Amino acid sequence: MPVIVLCSTKGGVGKSTTALLLAQVYAEAGSQVTLIDADPNQPLATWASRFTKSVPERLEIIGGVTEETVVEVIDDAAERKPFVIVDLEGSANVTASYAISRADLVLIPMRGKQLDVDQAARVVSLIERESKVFRRQIPYRVMFSMIGMLQSREQKHIRATLDGKGIPVLDTALFERAAFSAIFQIGGTIFDLTAEDVSNPKAAQENATAVAQSVIAALNEETTR
Length: 225
Ligand SMILES: Nc1ncnc2c1ncn2[C@@H]1O[C@H](COP(=O)(O)OP(=O)(O)O)[C@@H](O)[C@H]1O
Ligand SMILES: [Mg+2]
What we know:
This is Partition protein ParA. Pfam families: VirC1. By secondary structure, this protein is an alpha/beta fold. It is built from eight helices and six strands. It has a single domain, classed as P-loop containing nucleotide triphosphate hydrolases (Rossmann fold), CATH 3.40.50.300. Helix 5 links the parallel strand 5 and strand 6. The protein is globular, with a radius of gyration of 16 Å. The two termini are 18 Å apart. Bound molecules: adenosine-5'-diphosphate (ADP) and magnesium ion (MG). The site of adenosine-5'-diphosphate has 18 residues, from helix 1 and helix 7.
């Protein structure tokens, strides 16, 4: 417990990156974490197998998870581990529906682009439908991933649109930073990166940590609701 699910109807919005960063921050803080890779492309399982030696001990990665096994794998991990994070393919498929049904929080990443608003709204309506099916309000947050540090006019507009629709947004955004893509190329965690690898690794660590803390705050808000 808890189960955090990353979901979007399209690829390339930062699901796998966010999933891996959250897992790394919680593991770095001393928690046991299971990261479930339910994307057939296996980006996180590939990261783990390519850089076996630099995977933190507290971070367990389960790959090869499919529509047939996803619920069982999540339930089993949730019994064993304080944090379970599920990464999905960018598609509203059956695997995504099953994972959402088990979520304590669904995170819907979007870049600060108008096109991503429709994508996020589709995930929200999928979650709302599932909430009806299961007679349980499944908690969710849209989160900005991969955005520039200065808030653009487009982002402000998107934020207002989401507020207008009553769609909750995670308090902290994940900025676009070289450190967040570097971990996929050189392995290890953002806490292993040095100034030789990327510029200002500390800023990236702080940003990822702040996002991870906001996720915990959202989980707490939902359990006390
Ligand atoms: N915050 C970020 N900063 C820099 N690069 C990012 C960030 N988020 C994602 N990327 C890059 O964007 C691409 C898509 O991200 P990914 O996490 O794989 O998206 P998804 O899982 O939604 O398909 C990858 O090349 C990844 O390295
Ligand atoms: Mg992905």
